[in-house]
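Subject: for your reference before the review

Hello V.,

The reviewers asked for a structural picture of the protein, and I figured it would be easier to keep everything in one thread rather than splitting it across files. Below is the amino acid sequence we used in the manuscript, unchanged from the supplementary table.
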Amino acid sequence: MPSLRIRNGDKVGDPIELGERVTLGRSHECDVQIKDIESSRVHAELFVRDGEYYIRDLKSSNGTIVNGTEIDECALEHGDRIEIGSIIVEFIDERSAEAEAPGVDVADEPAKPAPLPELPGYEITERITGDSLTETYRATDEAMDRAVAVEVIDEASCSDAEAVLASIKAAARLEHPAVARIYAAGRHKETVYFVRELAAGESMWRLCGKLAPDD
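And here is what came back from the structure prediction:
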């Protein structure tokens, strides 16, 4: 239900619900009495037209001001400030407020990216790629101050984590211009990881040939 709320003076209080026609002014006969010397006895009226509220000045001595502009008649919107003399009255219409701020359908919200893993000694900054078995991240080796790639393998995705780790360590001994160098490898929080040179190419665990999903 639309209402008015007096914002200053001695009538500050709860919202005043509106009917089809409401008069405002200094007279005690008005629906909303405005106790201000600059208010006329019957200063203005609010009325409904086509389902919307309007305000009309009733030839008052000092005029009716809405949002800083003196008006003869105008439509009201939620949050409009009406000045009658020195008294400020706010028009409240929750119907229009709700229409202007529709709820967000959760299904329309973009999916939030998964949090980046943490690995001691490395600042992981970005996910590069991944599949059902491994995830590759861009990171900084904090001790050496260099950019590296960190590949993380969930132990639940491989049949033998120790065998995978052994294969990675064996691959680290390879030296070839087409093969990214492996700097470190280990296990951390139920994952196998290795740190390699940041370069384009196939994930090293595929070259090892030891990692396969459980049947």
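For the response letter, the relevant points are probably these. The helical segments are 94-100, 161-171, 204-208. Confidence is low (pLDDT under 50) at residues 209-215.

Happy to draft the paragraph if you're swamped.

O.
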